[in-house]
Design brief:
Elements: E1 5-12, H1 19-27, H2 35-40, E2 47-53, E3 56-62, H3 70-77, E4 82-88, H4 95-106, E5 111-117, H5 124-138, E6 148-150, H6 159-171, E7 183-185, E8 188-192, E9 196-202, E10 207-209, E11 213-217, E12 221-230, E13 233-235, E14 237-239, E15 243-249, E16 261-263, E17 271-280, E18 287-288, E19 291-297, E20 300-308, E21 313-314, E22 319-330, E23 337-342, E24 348-356, H7 367-377, H8 381-390, E25 396-397, H9 398-405, H10 409-421, E26 425-430, E27 433-437, H11 438-458, E28 465-466, H12 467-473, H13 479-491, E29 495-498, E30 501-504, H14 513-529, H15 536-541, H16 547-559, E31 563-567, E32 570-573, H17 574-591, E33 594-596, H18 597-604, H19 608-620, E34 624-627, E35 630-633
Parallel strand pairs: 1-3, 1-4, 4-5, 5-6
Antiparallel strand pairs: 2-3, 7-16, 8-9, 9-15, 10-14, 11-12, 11-16, 12-13, 12-15, 17-22, 17-24, 18-21, 19-20, 19-23, 20-22, 23-24, 25-27, 26-27, 28-30, 29-30, 31-32, 33-35, 34-35
Helix pairs in contact: 7-8, 8-10, 11-13, 14-16
Length: about 625
């Protein structure tokens, strides 16, 4: 139920410190599910168990303690709300205790409880000494002051007190947001007879229902939820914070592996380039620019090249902005935490938090890159939207904003509206939402204005430039940005449009004396010829201007409808066409609507050379309609 609080408890600690035994004592479930684990007595892969206390349902993730299996531990650590740090009273703090604890600190786990296992095997004085060691070990961390509960999985001593402290920690833990987009990193995948593909993971945000469509990343495959289970029980809907098993339809088991992610369809896309703030553990070696590391985020892992911004290396205990270039696509969002492990030997050296999951390549010394990331990192959503838009001067669509932020569409629309009202952002389109910096629209308008002026200077006899050509001359901006800039120029009285042509507002064509005489000569030649028009090339050759200008003057006469183009290089004066229409109308009154070609030739006093093109023109103008070898006068 949604009112039930779901909390993930992760056990961490050294091998043989009793993590699995403790989980079984608390829940009644042995999390060692693999035969090899039971035979060898160690947890190799992730184990799971469940416990309900009041209105809190705990999902226990029992992670491996052996050094060889730390990578499996990392797959289970990403969704942990409360850490159950397990330390054996007879061995105290050991190497894997330290590495697990470092990982949990780097992942930002907010709180936890320390279980002092095998407490029945040591004297009270030894318990006190181990307590002191633990206090020193966790000082300055999120476990400072956390309860340290001596327990015995064998006798049951201390288990009730441990359950109460786990409940206290759970009640103090903020519930995961079920209103966000659905995301579930996959940490296990298997096939079940009669059901097909089943995947499990911790649902880190949103909700999912039976029959929902989901997307499998990084494949980009859309599948359907056939069934859901949590705690071994079938459910109709799973909520953020739950350990969830999802039975998938539409995807084969062999196509799915740990590290993939289920999400709401059509929202997110994988990335191979992440901008982040990374930090090194005090125990790590210095990390140099372009070093290769193992990258772990959620249940995914990849090899990453670390590009440090503004520096050549990070010293132990320091943090810095960096770009991680991954060898495989992962689904990550701003705020997601990750772990970095040394390439060789493979040990945990640090971690970090994602700032931009769709990072562009930066020059290492570019101060604007650091300023951009610091704005995103600051957490002010209004400024983050403004920064993302400013970094995308061609415009940014809703789909990319959703994928890069993980926010909901109404939130993005509200922020865009506020920035638009403040004249910082221009909304280029509402459906789908497309935004651009206000400065981008102004820059585009200035470029268009210059392009129109340049066109007029180079083509003084042409009325304007076609819109598509103008867009190309303006740098081919996205159509919505181009139209917004055009609208500004038209409203400002800078340009005007006639059909598909754009010109300077108020501009008229000014002809030189030679050009004016040429125009008059062309018109006179066609006006005097009636329907027996001359060859246009012959007319243009006699003009007192060069051929290029002569053709442009001819185009002016066509635009002014003084001349009418009937066919290629066949032009008639408008008066001649008007007279022809009158002849056809008179013919219809006197002799009916049927007009044979021979009758048309006689009526117009022309040869077949002109008759056929003119009849085809009249058909296009709906004056006549062809019917076999005749025309019907309409």
């Amino acid at each position: 139920m949604a009112s039930e609080k779901h909390v993930i408890v992760g056990t961490a600690g050294h091998i043989d410190h009793g993590k699995s035994a403790l989980v079984e004592a608390l829940t009644g479930t042995n999390p060692d599910r693999l035969e090899e684990e039971k035979r060898r007595g160690i947890t190799i892969d992730l184990g799971f168990a469940f416990l309900r206390i009041g209105d809190v349902r705990f999902g226990f993730v029992d992670v491996p303690g052996h050094e060889r299996f730390v990578r499996n531990m990392l797959a289970g650590a990403g969704g942990i709300d409360v850490l159950l740090l397990v330390i054996s009273a007879d061995e105290s703090i050991m190497p894997q205790t330290r590495e697990h604890f470092d990982i949990c600190r780097l992942l930002g786990i907010p709180r936890g409880v320390v279980a002092l296992t095998k407490s029945d095997l040591v004297e009270p004085e030894m318990l006190d000494l181990v307590r002191l060691e633990i206090d020193e070990f966790v000082r300055g961390s999120f476990l400072a002051g956390a309860p340290i509960i001596p327990v015995s999985s064998r006798t049951g001593a201390g288990l009730d007190a441990l359950k109460q402290e786990l409940l206290n920690a759970a009640l103090a833990t903020a519930a995961k947001d079920i209103t966000r987009h659905f995301r579930l990193p996959i940490d296990r995948s298997f096939a079940t007879k009669g059901f097909g593909t089943v995947v499990t993971g911790t649902l880190i945000s949103g909700t999912v229902r039976v029959k929902d469509e989901i997307e499998l990343h990084p494949l980009g495959r859309v599948a359907r939820v056939r069934g859901l289970h949590s705690g071994g029980e079938p459910i109709e809907q799973a909520f953020a914070g739950q350990r969830t098993a999802v039975n998938l339809a539409g995807v084969e088991h062999h196509e799915v592996r740990r590290g993939m992610v289920l999400s709401a369809p059509g929202v997110f896309h994988p990335t191979r380039r992440i901008d982040a703030r990374i930090s090194l553990l005090p125990s790590a070696r210095p990390l140099r620019n372009r070093a290769q590391v193992h990258f772990h985020q959620g249940s995914a892992e990849a090899i990453a090249e670390v590009i440090l911004l503004g520096r050549s290396e990070i010293s132990p205990g320091e943090e810095a902005l960096a770009q991680l270039r991954l060898d495989a696509g992962v689904l990550a969002l701003p705020g997601d935490r990750f772990i970095l492990r040394q390439f060789s030997p493979v040990i945990t050296i640090g971690g970090g938090v994602v700032i931009d999951s769709a990072a562009r390549r930066h020059r290492r010394s570019d101060p604007s890159a650091a300023a951009f990331l610091q704005t995103l990192e600051g957490g002010d959503r209004l400024e983050s939207i403004a920064a993302l838009a400013n970094a995308s001067p061609r415009g940014l669509a809703m789909q990319e904003l959703l994928a890069r932020t993980g926010w909901l569409e109404p939130e993005i629309r509200e922020l865009a509206g506020r920035l638009s009202a403040a004249k910082r952002l221009r909304i280029l389109s509402e459906q789908p939402l497309i935004v651009a910096p206000e400065q981008s629209v102004q820059n585009c308008a200035a470029t268009i204005r210059t392009a129109v002026d340049d066109f007029h200077r180079g083509n003084p006899l042409l009325p304007g430039i076609p819109k598509q050509e103008l867009r190309g001359r303006a740098g081919n901006p996205r159509p919505e940005l181009f139209q917004a800039a055009m609208d500004d120029l038209i409203r400002g009285g800078i340009v005007s449009t006639t059909g598909d042509l754009v010109q300077r507002a108020g501009r008229s064509i000014s002809l030189s004396p030679d050009e004016a005489r040429a125009k008059e000569t062309i018109e006179k030649a066609f006006a005097q010829s009636g329907l027996a028009v001359p060859n246009v090339s012959a007319v243009l050759e006699k003009l007192p201007v060069e051929p290029v200008r002569a053709r442009k003057i001819l185009q002016i006469l066509l635009r002014e409808n003084v001349l009418i183009k009937v066919a290629e290089d066949l032009f008639f004066h408008r008066d001649a066409i008007a007279h022809l229409r009158e002849l056809i109308a008179g013919y219809r009154k006197e002799r009916g609507e049927r007009l044979p070609i021979t009758a048309f030739k006689d009526l117009a006093g022309i040869s077949r050379k002109y008759a056929i093109p003119l009849l085809e023109y009249l058909d296009r103008e709906h004056v006549t309609r062809r019917a076999g070898d005749e025309r019907v006068i309409l």
